[in-house]
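Recap slide: Chaperone protein HtpG, sequence and predicted structure.
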Amino acid sequence: MAATKQFEAESKRLLDIMINSIYSQKEIFLRELISNASDAIDKMYYKALTDDSITFNQDDFYIKVSADKDNRILKIEDTGVGMTEEELEQNLGTIAQSGSLAFKNENEIEDGHDIIGQFGVGFYSAFMVADTVTVYTKSADSGQAFKWQSNGAEGYTIEPAEKETHGTQILIQVKESSEEENYDDYLEENRLQSIIKKYSDYIRYPIKMDVTEQQPQEDNEEETVEVTEEQTINSMIPIWKKNKSELTDEDYEAFYAERRYGFDKPLKHVHLSIDGQVRYQAILFIPENTPFDYYTQDYEKGLELYSNGVLIMEKCADLLPDYFGFVKGIVDSEDLSLNISREMLQHDRQLRLIGKNIKSKIKKELQSMLKNERENYEKFYQSFGRQLKFGVQMDYGANKDDLKDLLLFYSSKEKKMVSLAEYVERMKDDQQYIYYATGESYDRIEKLPQTEMVLDKGYEILYFTEDIDEFAIKTLMSYDDKEFKSVASGDLGIESEEDEEKEESEQQENKEMFDELKNLLAGKVKDVRASKRLKSHPVCLTADGEVSIEMEKILQSMPD
Ligand code: ADP
Ligand code: MG
């Protein structure tokens, strides 16, 4: 009988803490054991590359998961490097000891290899569901196999064992279910399959399981028989590493739903495979609907960030400018190191390059949508146009050139949304300015006396109903060298000399009346004047200077 060795004191405490707190969901033990198996196969693969006496045969490398319900045993088996007695002792006897990290350091592996482990705690997560864990392992470097066994708290035993081929088998004696916790699930074929899909879908080696299914009989299609066959559960190649031509819109939509990017269908997806200054693959989505918390502090922008198929961060905010914060998706780059910290990421040159690249791709995509899929673009704009207008104004207008061509405003012409380019394109020959009017609603704006004269000239007016509209164009100042002008401003740039002379003479003729009015309205208005811009209305209010009456209202309502 092998002597029982104690875990080191700290290890025992750590084990308790870990089992009870690190992992919020028990099911992830399977992810950890499968990642270890994948690491072990990677190491074998690496060995084969560096040692001519080992022949590498793709089919020999797999992970197999099987459940024996009657005996409550779940088995995870791999054909990886295995462990020697010393390695068993070191790696499974000491918590927070990672053989995988040591392997990477010793072999100075930088890229091209995809070993996941580095913290040395994943293995013990098995004790969340196990009464006893038994490991049979045979190293590719030695002839003798060993058995390691532990029930968690009481330490572990190691003794020689029989095993023909190199690799590791992990046997989990699954706990009995209690009222609080159901462990039977971890012996159910369907449940195991779905856990594997959820966490380990992109593991590069096949994860196999014997699956029992009802299949139609060969000679009699009406009748079914139970057939058990070995199936590969994981898709191995992540969707973003697949070729665009192999994928359909439905595949992308399914991915969008699977990753829980939103409950809507995406309006648009962009699949990128960049092989330039920095290498990365990405799938980006433009959602159709505004997330309920989008325009609040609670909304967290960001893209999923992977390093060669392994998740680094669920929401990497640095990859998206605020004004494109609505974009969802994933980025995978082999140029990023896995064990990079959140703080370091911010300053990472590769990441900054990827971010810059992604920004320009999104901009291009939106521009092409505006040009070629107008209806979709307007749907998008309904949800996120406000964000773009905020974007123009943010950072003292630093991004205005990126955004000005993406803006739409409601227009007096045809009562539709127009872009600034479209407005300028159809400006009248004698028209100097881009006119706009502000108000609570399109109806209200339409009835403003100030709009009349401009419309009479056949000029188009942009109708601004959102607070941010006027702020945004004040930041832009002009578009295509055409300045913006409020129809409520003093000088509309329409009045002819003749008009002005007439206005002046009327002003003189009625001087007494105007002075009287001015006295009556003292403190409320600055001046009372004759105007040529009125047609059917007897009087209108005009703003003094650059700030429109609407804008003044907003400014006054703001806290100091
Ligand atoms: P990590 O994977 O972060 O290194 P783990 O606790 O998951 O930490 O595993 C500890 C170590 O045990 C690994 O680094 C590896 O050296 C060894 N190990 C675990 N599982 C296997 C396996 N299936 N085959 C070979 N070695 C393994
Ligand atoms: Mg691990």
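The pocket of magnesium ion (ligand 2) is lined by residues 32, 35-36, 117, 122 (CB under 6 Å).
Residues 283 and 360 are 14 Å apart (CA to CA).
(End of recap.)
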